Amino acid sequence: MILTVFSHKKVPSAAIARYALAEFLRLNGREIYDAEYLHRADGSPYFDRENAPYISVSHSADYVAAAISYSPVGIDIQAHTEIDYGKIAERFGMKVNSKEDFFDAFSAAEAKTKALRIPLAESLRSPEGKIFHFIPRFTLAIYGEGEIFFTFCFEG
After folding, report:
1. Buried b (16+ CB within 10 A) or exposed e, 50-60
2. What is the pLDDT of residues 70-119, one digit of tens each?
3. Per DSSP, what are the bridge partners of residue 142?
4. Domain that holds residue 67
5. Which InterPro entries does this entry report, sorted A to Z (predicted)?
6. How far, in Å, are 19, 85, 96, 132 from residue 101 at the CA level?
7. Longest CA span, the chain
8. Fewer CB in 10 Å around end: N or C, the chain?
């Protein structure tokens, strides 16, 4: 199971991570506990409790999203900004035909990078993940194993 939480209000990563942890444990029938949300030297987030689930967080424009699972998980949310996607795609050897294709591939690569803790350039060669477009002009990508559940509009 992958629980995905996102908000249309910019909330602190630690707040959305703690909310995601409580919801995830509740949905899995586990005892709710508090854990400190920290970052490793490479910037990847984690909870400071033994056997805590994996957590991934992403921000873009006015959105913040988190994914949590008992197996490695990655999430990325990208606003479709005005960029020269062709030039960036060429630089990284990406095969894309449109701006939407670019953001789908880039978001999937970011999510895969976060889950597997591998370089982005490696993920861009074979981007994988589940892609969602339910927010206009945004791509949300999730990489991980299991069924995805969504919790919307976390208010903090």
Report:
1. eebbbbbbbeb
2. 999 999 999 999 989 989 888 888 888 899 999 999 999 999 999 999 99
3. 75, 130
4. 2-151
5. 4-PPantetheinyl_Trfase_dom_sf
6. 32, 9, 5, 12
7. 49
8. C
Tally of domains in the chain = 1
Query: Does some domain include residue 144?
Result: yes
CA-based radius of gyration for the chain: 15
The set of residues, in sequence order, having a beta carbon less than 8 Å from that of 36 and lying 6+ positions away, is 47, 48, 49
Q: How far is CA 48 from CA 3, 45, 91, 124, in A?
A: 19, 10, 38, 30
Beta-strand (E) ranges in the chain?
Answer: 2-7, 37-39, 45-47, 54-60, 63-69, 74-79, 130-132, 138-143, 148-151
CA–CA separation, 60 and 45 (whole Å): 17
The residues facing 151 across adjacent strands are 5
Residue 146's closest CA among 72, 78, 64? Answer: 72
Cα–Cα distance measured from residue 48 to residue 146, given in angstroms and rounded to the nearest whole number: 23
Measured CA to CA, the distance from residue 97 to residue 44 in angstroms comes to: 31
Parallel/antiparallel/unpaired status of strands 63-69 and 2-7? antiparallel
Band (156; pLDDT cuts 50, 70, 90): very low
Domain assignment present for 34: yes
